Amino acid sequence: MYLALRELRHHPVRSLLLGAVVTLIAFMVFMLTGLTRGLAHDNAALLLGTPARHFVTTHDAEGVFTRSFLTPADVDAVRQAAGPTPATPVAQTFVSFSRGDRQLSGVLLGVAPGRFMAPAATQGRALTAATPDAVVDESLREDGVQLGDTLTLKPGGDTVRVIGFTRGARLNHQPVLYVTLDRWQALNPRSRGAVNAVAVQGDLPRPLPAGLGLHTRAETLQVLPGYQEEQGSLTMIQVFLVAVAAFVMAAFFYVITLQKTPQFGLLKAIGARTRTLAGSLVTQMLLLTAGAVTAAALLTLAAAQLLPGSLPFTLTAPTVLAASGLLLAVAALSSLLSLRAIARVDPLIAIGTPV
Asked: Boundaries of each ABC3 transporter permease C-terminal domain copy (predicted)?
């Protein structure tokens, strides 16, 4: 620790430059992590925040709501299998609608009012069994939608009035419009009473009839159209970014270690052990990385305040701590190359080199 702090104090410019490079790398990791989490939340906020633990769809639909059509008899069979466990049907369809001259799109979701899949209104009124109106995601405010507005569904021309806003109701990067199941059936007469899935709040005590499949919330999330592909691409970018960070930090510290070969040789000649010098180098690297990661985290939080509200960006404290721990681990691993160089320093040869 003493040697590491002394080294940092005696070379402030070099320490600042190296810290700046690590700060920029950590900033890129944090921003990309925030965008990845933001896109995941924007794509599947409805499923991420739902209290449902399982969803029942037809077996051949494999958990994809839009491929599943459950008849009223199927819904009754699921309820019998669920027994005392709460289970409620859900119907979904994609819709285009207009507010005045503005053309918009969203997900029309039919739910049973008062059940656990019904939205909690953050403004306005909640759904009731008799209302033909809708509670919509609050992101529609950015498109100018207000309480009391009438939305015209395309192409049929049916209308729903906005009676409330709710939070975290987005699916496939689109806002959700909640209506009652009866209203949803009236707006989708071709469904002939069918729904897409039954949400179950716990485990099923009895088996399902043949032709129906039970899927966990995580399984349903993975088969959400486009979700896995989108997250896979962004995760690969994160992996490459961390790998580049490890390479850059290893190269920087290795070059600095080579420049200090004469000093290491002199210290070894007067009795300093290799373990002491290696510990000093690792401590120096971890101190620099910890300071740089802290600066990058503060910089990211400040930058997040300047991002437009329409840009999906989610970065929580646990995510920042996890990414910071990963970068510290990468810094420690990237020091292995420099440790090897220190171990191979021969005092007799090194002190012969001009310091």
From this structure: 238-347
Question: What is the DSSP code string of 80-94?
Answer: HHHTTS-EEEEEEEE
Cis peptide before 132 (omega within 30 of 0): no
Helix, coil or strand: residue 116 = coil
3-state secondary structure 142-206: HHCCCCCCEEEEECCCCEEEEEEEECCCEECCEEEEEEEHHHHHHHCHHHCCCECEEEECCCCCC
Supply φ then ψ for residue 221, to 5 degrees: -65, -40
E-strand stretches of 28-125? 54-58, 87-99, 102-111, 123-124
Q: Does residue 348 or residue 290 have the better pLDDT?
A: 290
| Antiparallel, parallel or unpaired: β 102-111 and 174-180 | parallel
User: CA 293 to CA 326: how far, in whole Å?
Assistant: 11
Distance CA 284, CA 290 (A): 10
Distance separating alpha carbons of residues 266 and 13, to the nearest angstrom: 24
The secondary element (H helix, E strand) that includes residue 76 is: helix 72-82
pTM: 0.74
Half-sphere exposure of 31 (CA within 13 A, CB side): 17
Q: Are 313 and 304 in contact (CB under 8 A)?
A: yes
Q: Could you please report the per-residue DSSP string of 312-340?
A: -----HHHHHHHHHHHHHHHHHHTHHHHH
What are the tens digits of pLDDT across the range 109-146? 999 998 899 998 899 998 888 889 999 999 899 888 99
